[in-house]
């Protein structure tokens, strides 16, 4: 099955045509060391003016309530600043090592 923006693995994408342009809704899973998926996430955001992304992005940042950063968190935080979107994260941890 073809999905928008080349996302095929670990994602589900729905494109809804509207009068103002397509609205893309995607769920993504980003493993902690998935450089390819990080690149796809950035490509997706650059190409889609109307989008909602949800999922398990494994992105930790104090900006959205985590106690520490991880690499994915820094990437997502930089993208958030660059593309001006909102990150809505749980208010407590979802993983306890």
Give an overview of the whole structure.
With 97 residues, the protein is α+β, with helices and mostly antiparallel strands. It has one domain. It is 27% helix and 20% strand. The chain has helices spanning 35-47, 71-83, and strands spanning 11-16, 23-29, 51-56. It has a 3-stranded mixed sheet with strand order 1-2-3, with helices on one face. The protein starts with 10 loop residues before the first strand and ends in a 14-residue tail after the last helix.
Keywords summarizing the entry:
three-stranded mixed beta sheet, 20% strand, 97 residues, 3 strands, single chain, alpha+beta
In terms of per-residue confidence, which ranges show pLDDT below 50 for 5 or more consecutive residues? none
Biggest sheet, spatial arrangement of strands: 1-2-3
Shape: elongated
**Share in β-strands:** 15-25%
Total count of strands:
3
Helix segment count? 2
Q: How many distinct domains?
A: 1
Q: How far apart are the first and last residues' alpha carbons, in Å? A: 36 Å
What share of residues is helical?
Answer: 25-40%
**SSE order, one letter for each helix or strand:** EEHEH
Question: Which whole number gives the mean pLDDT?
Answer: 76
Radius of gyration: 14 Å
User: How would you characterize the largest beta sheet?
Assistant: 3 strands, mixed
């Amino acid at each position: 099955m073809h999905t928008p923006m080349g996302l095929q693995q670990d994602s589900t994408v729905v494109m809804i045509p509207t009068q103002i342009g397509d609205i893309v809704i995607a769920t993504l899973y980003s493993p902690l060391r998935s450089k390819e998926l990080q690149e796809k996430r950035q490509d997706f955001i650059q190409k889609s003016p109307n989008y909602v992304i949800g999922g398990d992005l494994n992105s930790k940042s104090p900006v959205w309530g985590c106690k520490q950063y991880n690499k994915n968190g820094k990437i997502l935080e930089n993208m958030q600043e660059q593309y001006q979107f909102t990150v809505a994260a749980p208010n407590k941890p979802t993983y306890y090592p």
